[in-house]
Amino acid sequence: MSLDETWVVTKTDTSASAIESANTVFTVSNGYLSLKGNLLEYRKGAMPSTIVNGVFDLADMVAFIRPTKHERRYLDPEYFDGAEPSPSVANLPNPLFTQVIIDGKELSFTRGRISNFKQNYNLKSAVYSYSFDHESPDGKITHIEMERFAAIGKAHIAMMRYTIQPVNYSGEVIVRAGIDGRVKSNLKGDQQFDVIETSGAAGECRLTAKTRARGILAEIGISNRVVEGSETMNRAVMEDSLVYNVLAFNPKQGEKITIDRHIAIACSEDARHGVTCSIDEELGKSTDVGYEAELASHCENWARMWEQADVKIEGNNLAQLYLRFCLMHVLSAAPRYTDKLSVPCKLLTGEYYQGTTFYDTDLYIEPFYLFNFPSLAKTCINYRYFGLENGRKIASDLGYKGAKFAWQAGPYGEECLGKWWRFTHTNIHIDGDVAYSLMQYIWATGDFNFLAEKGIDILVESARFYASRSTPGPKAGTYSLVNVAGPDEGHCESTNNFYTNLLAKRTLQWTAESLEKIKAKDERIYSQVVSRLSIDKSEPQEWEAVADGLVFYFDPESKVYEQCEGFYNLLPAPPDLLANRAEWFVTVFPYQALNQPDVVMAMVMFRDQFDYETKRANWEFYKDKSMNFSSMSFVINSMMAVEMDEMDYAYEQFLISAGEDLDEELTGRKDTAQGIHGTASGGAWMAAVLGFGGVLVSEDTLYITPKLPNKWKSLSFNLIYRGFKLKVRIEGSDVEIAVTEGREGDSFNAVVGGNKVLLKTGDTFRTKTQQ
């Protein structure tokens, strides 16, 4: 594999399963819109997917429950009969509709022979292309090329170039190019919108749709521009929910027909995000500058992003390709056009999980943004702030104070999962996850104003929820959290789950401490916070008391924390349990087994707060009990294995996290068709930079304690920390950190390779790691 190949993903498989997976892999998106990577000439399988971040409607999720022979403790049948359709991202009309007609018959993968098929994703520019030769039953060979991208820097614009070339014949070629409003949800086939208007003219198509439940208007426009070849006809056709241009050509053998399609999408939700536009004006500006200029601008924007975001691995091209693929998708999905939306766990690559935001975003995707594009991390936390209104309602409906963030959150922070999932009320660690991401942001940026203006609201309402959700124990001063689920999720009705209690404890403590810091820094702002949130003077003491009293089951002899009350009393896992991990949530409830890391995950998140012996004991106890069912498992395993100096295993787990969507055999799950595993994509960066690179932040210090896999010669990456731009290079035991930009006269504390240093702009510090 050459160096250039570390920037290009190539697929050549035309099997049905490979094409379904590739539809996801080759999705193009820009943070506002996304277009899945469907082949225009392939009609089987999933419908094309067109998503605008934050445009939701409804889908029948009860009907989506998979049949299984296994007991599912996470479902509550009591709510099945009254279950209604759930909020879900809407699959909008398809602006890529294309048909090529030769001799009155459509050129199709299912009619004729396909050869020389190749799909490419240029990761450096986020441009997707494919090409192939199609031989019809009567022997006519046609060469097809397609290229498309979602314009970075222009929220509403996507572009496609389509080329047709008769290889061994001359004759009429007809192209139908337009917008298809006949698409439905890929989850259960729900019709999520009605087409209310279509219009067209030569080279122009327009379609307006309205989502059925939420009444969101979506306007889609395309301009088809013939840039190679001479059309003999160019007219518009409006059919039921479909509008397209009919373009006729009469090429000679070998002559090319090339059509550039300018696509603009806007919706009525744009006003909320400050990105309203006129479709006609957007298309007019795009066609005026042309495809090549749009592509050049798009590539320049990507070059600037990669200059900051690229992580360079020397000596391992496969890992390099996998990691760049992950980062490209996480960058593509970034909420760069709004301050009120976050990133769905499937990024913008599919409708699975209803296009909702999980805690995966807070813990696995935000860290990449935080250390490379802090404003994007701030936007993700801002989304949680705007979700407090719905969070307060969720807590109140459950009978508690404060706010409980939605488990599967929609664009307004609303809960998108039905009550028939116990997770909606047992997975309360979500508040602590959000608080953790907030504190990481504050520590890494020093953004006191955000803490005082919005962050403290998140902390206070979360602390109130945990304090009211806790139950006093039989022993004075102790508190329990009952009927909860940790990240494991297999034991979803447990008491005193270690992870949940630790996150709740820290959240309660952070809240009280943050109030004191605000008070110490500015009494006036503190008074405003107390007034705005109606904080009683007794509340901080209550939060600290609950934090001090939360129960943990720790054995000082073995140094193992019991995952939850009674975990040791469960049956040993049967020998064949792990072999069945590919089955949908095979039950682990009766056993000492986990769907994914739980205690170990907590220790990775707070890895500076547990000694080596404790981490080693818990790693040894829980490692082989995990089914590693979730894509979040592998980054946690990798990072803990680095702590334990198990570098071969750390590398193996990193490679699964980074590569599972490009090589589905790595997990055996083969579910990439449902969307990119955004958790694994962000997690791959975490495993590389926070794990192997050893990056960690505390309240006032940046730590870099690297340890590289044997397969890697060097690792280089950039960081932004407290306004300083840093370049880090690790080769063997040598570490170099260069501070290239920052505030004049300012400095920051760091511990690099075990050495305490004070760094400022212009400094370059070199050392060797202390193993």
Would you kindly provide a written description of the structure presented here, covering whatever features stand out?
The chain is α+β, with helices and mostly antiparallel strands. Among the domains are: 4-55 and 90-306, Glycoside hydrolase, family 65, N-terminal domain (Beta-galactosidase, Chain A, domain 5, Distorted Sandwich), CATH 2.70.98; 319-364 and 661-771, Maltose phosphorylase, domain 3, CATH 2.60.420.10. 32% of the residues lie in helices and 25% in strands.
Largest β sheet strand count, sense and barrel closure: 9 strands, antiparallel
DSSP helix fraction:
25-40%
Lateral strand order in the biggest sheet: 1-9-10-11-12-19-16-15-14
The mean pLDDT is 95
| Distance, first to last CA | 32 Å
Approximate shape: globular
Structural category is alpha+beta
Work out the radius of gyration. 27 Å
Beta-sheet strand percentage?
25-35%
Work out the oligomeric state of the chains in this entry.
Answer: single chain
CATH topology label of the domain at 4-55 and 90-306: Beta-galactosidase, Chain A, domain 5
How many strand elements?
32
User: What's the CATH class label of the domain at 4-55 and 90-306?
Assistant: Mainly Beta
Ranges where pLDDT stays below 50 over 5 or more residues in a row are none
Question: How many DSSP helices?
Answer: 18
CATH superfamily of the domain at 4-55 and 90-306: Glycoside hydrolase, family 65, N-terminal domain
CATH architecture label name of the domain at 4-55 and 90-306: Distorted Sandwich
